[in-house]
Amino acid sequence: xxxxSSSPIDEDTPPQxxxxxxxxxxxxxxxxxxxxxIAVMVGAGISTSAGIPDFRSADTGLYANLARxxxxxxxxxxxxxxxxxxxxxxxxxxxxLYPGKFRPTxxxxxxxxxxxxxxxxxxxxxxxxxLEREAGVPDEKIVxxxxxFARQGCIDCLAPYPSDMMLExxxxxxVPRCKNSPCNGLVKPGIVFFGEPLPEEFHRNRSLPAQADLxxxxxxxxxxxxxxxxxxxxxxxxxxxxxxxxxxxxLGSRADDVLILGDCDSGVxxxxxxxxxxxxxxxxxxxxxxxxxADEKSSTPPQSSDEKLRSEIDKLTEDIDSTLKLSSDxxxxxxxxxxxxxxxxxxxxxPSELQEDIPASKSDQSNKSxxxxxxxxxxxxxxxxxxxxxxxxxxxxxxxxxxxxxxWS
Length: 409
Description:
- It is a single chain.
- By secondary structure, the chain is of the alpha/beta class.
- 32% of the residues lie in helices and 10% in strands.
- The chain has a six-stranded parallel beta sheet with strand order 3-2-1-6-7-8.
- It starts with 22 loop residues before the first helix and ends in a 40-residue tail after the last helix.
């Protein structure tokens, strides 16, 4: 179990359990009470709209933004051997990645809603950002395959370290040490580094999806084992739903696999709307909004590609309209002035003269101003993308080094 073909199902093959392979059929399956034990598997893609990029994007991913730490290689920041020699680079990065800076997304709120309705069997996450917890998903429902910032301890004697002291050290950019004087070992968050085994909790629960009557996979590349094997544990005939930018793993190879391709937040809203939960979901997500106005502004999810394109078109249209109006107004002023001066050759004024002092449009000014330019774990089946050693969702795109998430996907 856990190994299967990745070839897409023939479109002519009818589903075994669902009426059709579409979002409406999944919604009816849930509304009819046939999905009582839902297993959810998530990766970095559910946190990117919170401002936490994944690990491997070419320009905005975590590993692409680590040059300033002067590492021998990017992944060294999550290598346990390198950490023992030089923990400072990790704690320099941790200041930007530490929980508390980012608001959970509506996708996190959807998982919380499943839990509130008593339908969540278990959430398996590759992310280390703790946003599932901040959204209110109960601790006992979460399996953090690559660990997280939720706990910390000494890497030698394994003694736990107080969370409040850890926060103080991280904010100060200092390396915490074990409080046991005979030990004085390095303290590290419970993130799985390269060279470390996956948490025992993951192995204990790995086959749990076999008990599920619905599996939902969101925002992961499913390229790193053993996490990538989880959807394969679902029993044949149990619907599996993928909400992701693209088809991954074996999803789409079974008769009851439903693919909702696109960004996670949009896909979750579509599913919630079809079930009749959208208003409830939006209200639940609204409760995660920061109280402080500045925090609220910073936590506003980035625009989608379509929204950005529409905004650019609207702005360009406004600039053109503004420029044309300036040209028209200026021409009228020139003609009036010439008339007052008794000049009878107004009609001979050249277009270049009429536009000589027309201000540049906002777009032109903007373009000119921009011309100058402007996680880790064990070596046997551990992360490389969704990997515990590559905590995939993590850096703020507006910074050289952005915050972490998570899956190594």
